[in-house]
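Re: the multi-chain job from yesterday

Posting the exact lines I submitted so nobody has to dig through the queue logs.
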Amino acid sequence: MADQIIGGLTTLLEPANFVFMFVGVAIGIVFGSLPGLTATLGVAVMLTFTFGMAPVPAVMLLMGVYAGGIYGGAISAILINTPGTPSSAATVLDGYALTRQGRAGEALRIATFATAFGGILSALVLLFGAPQLARVALEFGPAEFFALALFGLAVISGVSGGSLLKGLLMGILGLLISTVGLDPVGGLPRLTFGMDNLQGGVELIPALVGLFAIAELMRRAPGAHLGAQRFETADTPFPFTRAFRYTRTLVKSSAIGTFIGAIPGAGPGIASFLSYNEARRSSKNKEKFGKGAREGVAASEAGNNSATSATLIPLLTLGIPGDTVTAVLLGALALQGLRPGPELFVDHADIVYAIMLGLIIIQVMLYVQGRIAARLFARVATVPPNLLIPVLIVLMFVGAYSVNNTVFDTRVMMVFGLVGYIAHRFGFPVVPMLLGIVLGPIAETGFRQALLQSGGDPGVFFTRPLSLTFITLAVLLFVAPLIAQGVSRLRQRDRVST
Amino acid sequence: MTWTDKAAVRLSDRTKDRCSGIVLFVAGLGLWFYSAHSLQRGLSGPTEIGPEFFPQFLAVALMVLSPGLVIKSFLKRDTEYRRPQERDERTKQDNPNATFYVFAFTGMYVLLAEPLGFVPATLLTMAPLMWLLSVRRWYFYVALVIFVLGVQHVFQTYMYIQLP
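And the result, C-alpha cells for all chains:
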C-alpha cells in the first residue's frame, strides 16, 4: 500500500491539481451558502468545465465543489436560519441561536473546524479502510434502509424543542408530504390533486427554503424598517486550540458520518442529524442544545462533511453512486475512461490514491478558505435587514426556480413559507417536518420492498442483524427521553411532598 | 396588523394548541377519506403493501395524535404556558404590517415572474418592498438593478439556467 500511496502522492503533486482544488472549494462555498443553490447543482455546473481535463484535476475540482458546497450550507444556516443545503438543517438549531446571541463569527469558525476535521478523518478511513467499509455497506438491503430511516426519524425526539407531541405531528406531516407524487414502487400517482407538477413529488429544496428562509424573513420583517440588526457583535473570535475541546464529539460525529456516507443512498442529511442527536444525548449540558450549544454545531458539521468524503467509498470500490453528486462524479470518471470498481484499484492505483489523498488536501484548503470566509460572511449578520430581505428573496427565488427550471417550485416555496411562519407562531418546530420529508421516501421504499421480498413477512425487519440493531436503537432513542422525563417528574413530586 | 399576526397575538398558547389540534385532526380525517376512496390501488397481491398504505397510515397517526394537543391544553396549568410578554418577541417600534408586505410582495413576485419575465418582475416587486421597509437612499435602488442584472447574467451565461 505504501508504494501506491507514494505513487498517488506523486500524481497529486502537480501544481494544477492544487489550483483546481482551491477553485473548486471556493465555488462550492458560494453555491452552498446561497439558499436554494446546492452542492449538487454546483457539481453539475462544473462538470461541463472538466471535459478535456485529466482525471485527477477533474475529480479534484468536483470534489472541491462538493465539500465546499456542503460546508457552505452551514453559512446560511448560521447567519440567516436557512440551511443552504438539506444536510445543514441540524446546524440551524444551534448555529442561528449563536448568531442571535451576537456570536455569528464563533459559530462559523466552529463549523469550519468541524467540517475540516470530519472531512480529514473520513478521507483517512477512505484511504485505509474503504474495501472493508464497502463490504458492510453492501449488507444494506431494503429492511436495513427502512430501519435506518426509522432510526433517523427517532431523532425527532431530540429536535422537537419543548413539545414532543408537536414534533411528532410535524414529523407525520413531513412524511405525508413525502408521499405526494408517483409512488416509489408501483409508479401510481398519489395526493397530486390533478396537478401534473406534483407528479414528481414535492421538491425538497423549495420546501426547505420556504420552511426556513421565507418564514424567517417574515419573522424578521417587523423590525426591518429600523435599518439595524438586533445582533450587535457578529464577528466573535474562536481560537483554533479551543476547538479541540470538542474532540470527543468531533470524532464520534465523524465516525457516524463516515459510516452513513458509505451506505449508498443514505446521504449527509441523515448523518448530520444522527451526529447532532448523539452529541446531545451524550452531553452533560443537554439543556443548552437548541439554544446555542457550540457542540451542536460541531457535531452536525463534522457529521455531514465526513459523509461527503465517505460517499466515495461505494463509488470507488464498487462503482455504486450513493447520491446525486456521486452519480455525477461517476459520469465524470466515465468521461475520463475510468470505470470505478475493484479493477480501478489495480489498473489505475495512482489515480485512485491521488484522489483519496487529494481529499485530505481539499479539507485543509476548506479550512483556510473557511476561516477567511467566516470573517467576511459574519458581516452579513450586521447588514440592515431592510436591504438584506429583498436580496435574499431574489436569491431564494432563483434557487427554488433552478431546481427544475419551473415557476411552480417557487410557488411551493411560498406555501411552505406560510406553513413555516404559522408553525412558528403556533409553537410547532419545523425541523421534524424536514426530517419527515427527507426520510419518508427512504422509509417507504425500504418498507415496501422488504415486505415484497419476504412475501409479506414483517419478521424480515427483526431477523436481519443490522436492521434489528437500528430498530432497537430507534426505540431506545425514542423511549429514553420519555423515561428520563418521567423519572425527573417523579423526583420533583417527591421533593415537593417532602 | 396582518390577519396572521392578529390571530397569533390574540390567541393564547392554550387556544392555539386547541385550534391546531382540531385542524390537524380534521386534516387527518380528510386525508384518510381521500386516500381510502380516491387513491388508485396497485396490482398488489395479498402480501404486497399498496401505494395507499403509507398515506392512510399517516392520516390515522395524525388523527390519533392530534387530539393529544387538545387534551393536554385542558390538563396543563397556566404556569406551564408562556406569558404574552415571553411569547411576543416584538418591540413597540416594530411595524407588524411588514410581515404581510414581505409575504404579499414575494407572492406577487412569484406570480408575475412568468408573465413579465425575471428582471421586470423583480424590479416591480422588490423596489416597492424596499420602499415599504424604509429604504430611502436612491443608490440602494441602483444597486438593486445592478444586482438583478448580475444574477441574470451569471445564471444564464455561466450556469446555463434560463430564468423566466
